[in-house]
Amino acid sequence: xxxxxxxxxxxxxxxxxxxxxxxxxxxxxxxxxxxxxxxxxxxxxxxxxxxxxxxxxxxxxxxxxxxxxxxxxxxxxxxxxxxxxxxxxxxxxxxxxxxxxxxxxxxxxxxxxxxxxxxxxxxxxxxxxxxxxxxxxxxxxxxxxxxxxxxxxxxxxxxxxxxxxxxxxxxxxxxxxxxxxxxxxxxxxxxxxxxxxxxxxxxxxxxxxxxxxxxxxxxxxxxxxxxxxxxxxxxxxxxxxxxxxxxxxxxxxxxxxxxxxxxxxxxxxxxxxxxxxxxxxxxxxxxxxxxxxxxxxxxxxxxxxxxxxxxxxxxxxxxxxxxxxxxxxxxxxxxxxxxxxxxxxxxxxxxxxxxxxxxxxxxxxxxxxxxxxxxxxxxxxxxxxxxxxxxxxxxxxxxxxxxxxxxxxxxxxxxxxxxxxxxxxxxxxxxxxxxxxxxxxx
Amino acid sequence: xxxxxxxxxxxxxxxxxxxxxxxxxxxxxxxxxxxxxxxxxxxxxxxxxxxxxxxxxxxxxxxxxxxxxxxxxxxxxxxxxxxxxxxxxxxxxxxxxxxxxxxxxxxxxxxxxxxxxxxxxxxxxxxxxxxxxxxxxxxxxxxxxxxxxxxxxxxxxxxxxxxxxxxxxxxxxxxxxxxxxxxxxxxxxxx
Lengths: 442, 191
What we know:
- The structure holds 2 protein chains of 2 kinds.
- Chain A is built from 3 helices and 32 strands.
- By secondary structure, chain A is mostly beta strands.
- In chain A, strand 3 and strand 4 form a beta hairpin.
- Chain A is globular.
- By secondary structure, chain B is mostly helical.
- Chain B is 72% helix and 0% strand.
- Chain B contains 10 helices and no strands.
- Chain B is elongated and about 55 Å long.
- Chain B starts with 11 loop residues before the first helix and ends with a helix.
- Classes of the chains: A mainly beta, B mainly alpha.
- Chains A and B meet through helix 1 and helix 2 of A and helix 2, helix 3, helix 5, helix 6 and helix 7 of B.
């Protein structure tokens, strides 16, 4: 019997590296004989041109073209189905939930559980967030659905759908997997301007978009690519990520481009998981970073001085974290594999578990801090797929360390599977590959 | 290069040989095989922990590669294609032998303990190495494969992703899951 010990990378390699150095000589001979005895597969290639002009269609050619046309139609329908699966709920302000579904913005009233479609435009609305006062919704709109002819804009509208207008004009790429973050005074939105490429090291710059319609402007002097910008609650800072080919880096900068600070870096092959999360006092930034042991940690980094505190409560990946409005609690997802999701709430200072519930993911805290909104699996079973928007409450009297069961209250049953809690969960089913769920929404 | 299978981008010299082999030149293919077979064999042994099964997997992979080579659309991806084929065969082999008794390969030989003497001493030991090997035998095919690709072959996340046909983020999750499974299996060894 051996004493328990920690797995060390070098020990692991030593244990698993086989002692053999070369393949047996007779194996080479066997392969040569096998190759000599095996005919290569013949590949039929289309002659060029495929067919001479003015050929009278034969019955078989007609059938081939009909089959091809049918396949094209089916592919288009499949693409529409996948697109219709994109749902990115978002919560904030004024008592209403806003989320995008099937390329439209939807609203839900948590009190009445009523839902309604707030947009009916031909464009594809992919990201939406409330203004700080709840008077406006901002959204990223893909007008053409065409990589060859991109036409994106950032639009604003009233919650009742009125007064919709663009604050950017059409034409640029604004990442539909990116972020829209309002300044606390509602005058600016910070977002990322891309070329349409999705790779983490693809070109991207951060732009401030004036909500009065005077246009977007890049923040000067920032490293590129720069992604996932987010305003601090006091509006004094913007946090963002940048990849330099070797490392992924966390920065903060003043909105005018001054006082750029690199707070943390990690190996680019490991990287960060989602968007920087500010502490309510704007003095710290929380990031989720993979380490070399392939554990993911919640790291709280000071804006002044760069002190780093690991908030990970246990050795499970912890990600998608949100501070409660008073900063006292932190809600996040946790699970030992990508297909399990447990919503956990800890006391920030002590890291003690306050409440948890399985098969749920937090979207954001309710403005009063009394609970959270999230996504959950509506039915029984252990599906890793969410299908309902829920309210999540910490039980009265829940004490740190007790780990009480959180109360889950359905708000909107979306009536369909809207995607894995974790986009990297790859299970058979309609949402294979995390197509539907584009990451933890912020 | 830790092995021929570790090559993911095919060199220009090899590219010429791949083109000739695609056209039916057996000598060109044999030349490609000679440069890769040791690495492929080591990878297979590491995953399967059985030399006979590894031999079968490598032989089947290479003969099938010869047969299917004309269908390879991107010759520059020859090594990635070959590596993916070997990984799939190893996983199939592991699944098919679930009911068979596994002949354990002795890894604690002189070569290994010499190469990794310092690490072994730090962890106090050959017995820990043996415990890891026994725990490894209890892992799934997918868990074994990803641990070998990263920790033995020392492939990067970006290299592993196309081999397994998944996103880089998924590779990270699977490495986490495999390491956790190994840790649990090690704890089982302690009982």
